[in-house]
Amino acid sequence: MLAIEKASHVMPWSATTLSSCFQEHYHVYGWFCDNDPNQLLGFYIAHQVGDELTLMNIAVHPASQGQGIGRALMQHLLELARQYHASIWLEVRASNSSAQRLYSSLQFTEVGKRPNYYPLAEGREDAIVMHRVADD
Ligand SMILES: CC(C)(COP(=O)(O)OP(=O)(O)OC[C@H]1O[C@@H](n2cnc3c(N)ncnc32)[C@H](O)[C@@H]1OP(=O)(O)O)[C@@H](O)C(=O)NCCC(=O)NCCS
To answer: What are the pocket residues of ligand 1 if the criterion is a CB atom closer than 6 Å to any ligand atom?
Structure first.
């Protein structure tokens, strides 16, 4: 997970932060290579409080991006949300248009903005807050 994290994110989480998600109220799922079940290609981490899920992290190794893995991970999260009758919240960098396109295509809508939320190598950028209502 750490290798994928470092390769795919502008400001990657540390090993300690990733490890801290392996506890109650967190859902951590990975997507493994068909030919090598030991090779992790992507993962997501969601935190649950009651009937609300928050997508904390999703990443696919750059070498495996654009092949439908991110969408498949999100479909898994939607299935989890259905199971718990939960809505889903997430935050995404304003500059991350490919992730925003993915979320919009799965009926997430922009519900707010956190100005200067994310650090950049130089300066900061806004977070777009997105929400998907629970399925009936
Ligand atoms: C966002 C991310 C998880 C998507 O994973 P992926 O496996 O590349 O995505 P998919 O191949 O399933 O594509 C899903 C959709 O994302 C969008 N997308 C993916 N790559 C894109 C690109 N290069 N340009 C534009 N849109 C893109 C498209 O809407 C695509 O839909 P389509 O399949 O109908 O074309 C992946 O790009 C990633 O790990 N990015 C770095 C980490 C990150 O930004 N995480 C999100 C933090 S909020």
So the answer is: 8-9, 58-60, 65-71, 92, 96, 98-99, 101-102, 105
Mean pLDDT for the stretch of residues 108-120: 96
Q: Which amino acid is at 87?
A: S
As a whole number of Å, the CA-based R_g of the chain is 15
Ligand 1 atom closest to the CA of 65, numbered from 1: 8
pTM score, two decimals?
A: 0.96
Q: How many domains does the chain have?
A: 1
Q: Is 10 helix (H, G, I), strand (E, B) or coil?
A: coil
Q: Which of 87, 91, 136 is nearest to 111 (CA)?
A: 91
Q: Report the alpha-carbon distance of residue 19 to residue 5 in Å, rounded.
A: 12
Q: Known catalytic residue: 103?
A: yes
Whose alpha carbon is nearest atom 42 of ligand 1?
Answer: 59
When pLDDT is cut at 50, 70 and 90, the band that residue 13 belongs to is very high
CATH code at 120?
Answer: 3.40.630.30
For residue 62, the enclosing domain spans 2-132
At 35-53, the pLDDT tens digits run 999 999 999 999 999 999 9
